[in-house]
Design a protein that fits this description.
The complex is a heterodimer. By secondary structure, chain A is an alpha+beta fold. Chain A contains 18 helices and 18 strands. In chain A, a hairpin with a 5-residue loop joins β1 (74-75) and β2. Chain A starts with 13 loop residues before the first helix and ends with a strand. The chains are: A alpha+beta, B mainly alpha. Chains A and B meet through β2, α8 and α17 of A and α1 and α2 of B.
Chain lengths: 571, 106
């Protein structure tokens, strides 16, 4: 057996050369692949080892989607819900899918009795592809419609604004329309942030105090058959509105069922000539500027005649009156003379700084601008001294009274609860001493003056009554009054201001026919303070204690300086 | 030798692949659970929301006042029902027969 001849090829010439070329090409190709693979390997290492970007190291689990009902809630200062959004079912129909329109209309009107079968039949035979049957069904209605099993009816999930407190906060909150757009009040003012959802809007109001205020206000309006009324409770040291009511009110759940005049917010949009309560400012600014002194006084025995006007006193004493007496007995003549002592320019400057000449900053869209005389003549200065000839909104009036009472620092009125670490920013308007003196005078009004019915035992109420005649047609109508009482308590270290204003009260038997602030509004303020003070954490004090008497002692001169002695009032 | 290495790699690939699918299915089940729980939480929250609204409605002060007047003997506190600690007599018995705790309320 011969071994297989080994095939040997001796290549030479062109064959050898082509083999060489092939090998070289193989080498080049191999090198290219090697480069490509090493690039990929490098990139792989880079992505998976070096860089941490790309895939996260730990897979993130899907979080529970936080429940949001669209429009954010509105809550009071204690977290009580004032407005919230609930999901409801709205019923609509596609008439083309309805098999037996007559039967469907009959059955629907049976479960939704407020819808008439004839109207429903019209809708269901309209040939369109979408008609609303009823929006915002209650869960019970939803269930009963579902049970009917009528083809062609569908439900749309919708959102509905609910006001659990009903009428209690009607004007402050305002309301939102059917499509969730705020149309009045806080709902309108903060529409954008409420629509953004997220956190609830915290207001400065307290539901309990609001209830007390509204109830007593309604009682007063009812008793005196008044056209309406308004009331406010404000924290003197922050400007926060604790309660704000306006009557007549409305139910924000069904705002369109109320007459248009019920939507009017008397507390912020209404402007009133406040009457004698304005003397708080008249005397405060005169004392502050040094135009008069507590020991001074004016002759109030004769009415003042200026042009065609005649300034007279309602509770006339017809004699020389000291400054405390002018305030206590609410003398218009005395107040006018005090204002003249300060002068027109001084009066306007002080009123401006107290914030009574510009609209208040309270956060609702319904804010009325004050009515200010122009030009500001001497006669205006005199009438403004006792609160006529200038009309301001109750909200800004209360803000200014708080300024006078709290030691002279003005805090803008607000309906929002300030953040914890954000102290209220105020601006000094009056001297501390002025505030102290005015507080003593306000106490005198309650212990021995026109506001005795504003007394709330234990809470040291100080205040001022006001009775203004409403303007109508030409001149003032003496039968149509705006009667008010503004109270501050405790007067030794004020915490809260309470205003009650009754629009067109009519005197009755109990008040001997009187419809003045002292008879109409002061008792309401007294009851409000008695009920609200324990809730607000104001401790009662012994009003007869030596400490209190000494703090509130006032010297009342009975005659011009140098003629006779003094009476010392200390109540 | 070469054959064994191949078998080893094939086995390894099969085991890893099986394990991978196991993990994948497990994750899928867990994710389904999670989604279900999340939906349940959202539903609960909606329920809570409705209940909070109802709570606010039922706690309307006018309603509470009426219920309190009807069922409770409670009345709003008067000034003389509120006191301070300073107003309390010293509870320690004084030697000289001063006011004693027994005298409170006489």
């Amino acid at each position: 057996m011969t071994p297989k001849p080994i095939a040997t090829a001796h290549l030479d010439g062109t064959a050898k050369q082509s083999l060489e070329v092939g090998r070289n090409r193989l080498l080049v190709g191999g090198a290219l692949f090697a480069v490509a693979f090493s690039v990929i390997a490098f990139r792989l290492a880079d992505v998976s080892v070096v860089k941490t970007a790309g895939e996260p190291g730990v897979a993130a689990a899907a979080q529970a989607r936080a429940f949001t009902a669209g429009r954010a809630d509105i809550v009071d200062r204690n977290g009580v819900i004032l407005a919230t959004s609930l999901n409801t079912a709205s019923l609509y129909a596609n008439p083309r899918h309805v098999l037996d329109a007559r039967e469907a209309a009959k059955r629907l009107s049976r479960v939704l009795p407020e819808l008439r079968a004839a109207v429903l039949l019209g809708k269901l035979t309209s040939g369109r592809t979408f008609v609303w049957i009823k929006r915002h069904l209650t869960p019970r209605q939803h269930h009963s419609v579902l049970r009917q099993g009528i083809p062609g009816l569908y439900f749309q999930r919708e959102e509905r604004r609910i006001y659990p407190q009903g009428r209690l906060f009607s004007h402050l909150l305002g309301f939102a329309g059917i499509d969730g757009v705020g149309l009045a009040g806080v709902e309108k003012q903060f529409n954008d942030s409420l629509r953004a959802g997220a956190k609830p809007l915290v207001l400065s109001v307290d539901t309990r105090i609001q209830h007390v205020l509204t109830q007593e206000l309604a009682a007063a309006v009812g008793e005196f058959r008044a056209a309406g009324g308004t009331g406010l409770v404000m924290d003197t040291d922050t400007g926060e509105i604790i309660a704000m009511a306006s009557l007549p009110d409305f139910d924000p759940n069904v705002p369109n069922r109320s007459p248009a005049k019920a939507l009017f917010n008397r507390a912020t949009l209404g402007v009133y000539e406040m009457g004698s309560t304005f003397k708080v400012f008249t005397i405060a600014m005169a004392l502050d500027a040094g135009a008069v002194r507590m020991s001074g006084g004016f002759d109030a025995s004769k009415p003042i005649r200026v042009a065609r006007f005649r300034i007279t006193d309602y509770h006339g004493k017809n004699r020389w009156l000291s400054v405390p007496e002018i305030f206590m007995y609410s003398s218009n003549i005395g107040a006018a003379k005090i204002a003249l002592a300060l002068g027109t320019r001084g009066q306007r400057d002080y009123l401006g700084r107290l914030g009574l000449l510009t609209p208040p900053s309270v956060e609702v869209p319904e804010v009325g601008a004050p009515l200010v005389p122009s030009p500001w003549r001497k006669i205006n200065t005199m009438t403004i001294a006792y609160g006529h000839g200038i009309a301001v909104s109750p909200a800004q009036f209360v803000e200014s009274v708080a300024t006078v009472a709290n030691g002279g620092i003005r805090y803008p009125a607000t309906v929002l609860k300030p953040l914890k670490d954000e102290p209220a920013k105020g601006r000094r308007v009056l001297k501390r001493r002025t505030s102290l003196e005015i507080r003593k005078l306000m106490r005198l009004v309650v212990t021995g003056g026109t506001g005795r019915q504003g007394h709330a035992p234990g809470y040291l109420v100080g205040g001022k009554t006001g009775t203004a005649e409403k303007t109508g047609g030409r001149g003032y109508r003496s039968k149509a009054l705006v009667s008010s009482f503004v109270g501050v308590f405790p007067i030794t270290a004020p915490r809260y201001v309470v205003l009650v204003l009754i629009d067109e009260p009519r005197g009755n038997k109990r008040t001997h026919g009187y419809a003045t602030g002292g008879w109409v509004a002061a008792p309401a303020v007294s009851r409000i303070i008695s009920r609200a003070a324990p809730l607000l954490g104001v401790a009662p004090v012994d009003e007869e204690s030596e400490l209190v008497r000494r703090a509130l002692r006032v010297r009342i001169p009975t005659a011009p300086r140098g003629r006779q002695g003094h009476n010392i009032a200390s109540f | 030798m070469r054959g064994r290495v191949t078998v080893f790699w094939i086995l390894l690939a099969a085991v890893v692949g099986f394990g991978l699918f196991q993990v994948k299915y497990k994750v899928q089940t867990l994710e389904d659970d999670l989604a279900r729980l999340n939906a349940a939480i959202t539903a609960e929250q909606e329920q809570l929301h409705v209940l909070a609204a109802e709570w606010a409605y039922l706690n309307h002060p006018a309603r509470l006042q009426e219920l309190s007047a009807r069922y409770l003997p409670l009345r709003p506190p008067t000034v003389d029902q509120i006191g301070t600690l300073d107003g309390l007599p010293d509870a320690r018995l004084p030697a000289n027969g001063g006011p004693r705790l027994d005298d409170v309320g006489r």
